[in-house]
Amino acid sequence: MQEVLSRATTLEEVQTFVEDLRDVYDLEHLVYHSVNSTGGQYAALTYDQEWVQRYLEQGYARIDPVVQGCYRKFQPTDWKALDWSAKGARSFLGEAVESGLGNQGFSVPIRGPSGQFAVVSVNHKCTDDTWANFTGERAADLLLISHYLNEKALQIEGNPERGPTRALSPREKDTLCLLASGANRANIAETLKISESTLRVYIESARFKLGATNTTHAVAMALTHGLIVV
Questions:
Q1: What digits encode the pLDDT tens for the residues 27-85?
Q2: Element (H, E) at 110
Q3: Per the database entry, which stretches of residues form a coiled coil (predicted)?
Q4: Cα–Cα separations (whole angstroms), residue 90 to 57, 64, 128, 193, 229
């Protein structure tokens, strides 16, 4: 899927990618929504357009626990961990479900350059156990895809992708490559024959050079810029 997205040159192609990815993962919906520092917005999503129009007309972003929760968070969040206790939030959820949204959701908040903020959300109709298995197996993929989507949308909209401020060292590349392939930190340290504390130094150094907001973002940027190959 990364290769498909890398070939996209228009926002329409990003929309098509989102629709195809929804089908690949057999989800109800997949959404990418970005807001830049001046309030400009872009969204690639699979929601019914009537629901999108209703959402915008009612200004539901003000009460949507997913939007409000992700704006305060840096880590991926399961929707059930958000606060749905307010009457307005419960009413909003009921209306969303009636409009075709599933009972399960998972969102990845992203902080981009110059104050840009984005969210990637996936949504499904299934049991808690089925959803827990899905997110447990796919969380790492969703994190990387979310950052790929954001980097590509920024590139197409005319915001240059942020390249590394300095070249990555061979050890930093090895570290990011192993992270991208799904290895955990203990296994990476063992493979590279270094301590986990030394590994943390390589990761933080790579993040700084890439201008990445977190480790997953660093891996995504390294892949996007062709600095590592998995």
A1: 999 999 998 877 888 999 999 999 999 999 999 999 999 999 988 877 889 999 999 99
A2: strand 104-111
A3: none
A4: 18, 10, 19, 52, 45
Tokens of 105: 């959701």
Q: Which two tokens stand for residue 159?
A: 């915001």
Domain 2-156, CATH: 3.30.450.80
H/E stretch holding 178: helix 170-180
Q: What CATH number was assigned to the domain covering residues 170-224?
A: 1.10.10.10
* CA separation for the pair 8, 44 (Å, rounded): 13
Residue for token digits 């209703």?
A: 54
Instruction: Give CATH 3.30.450.80 domain extents, the chain.
Output: 2-156
* Residue 170 identity (one-letter amino acid): P
H or E element, residue 140? helix 128-156
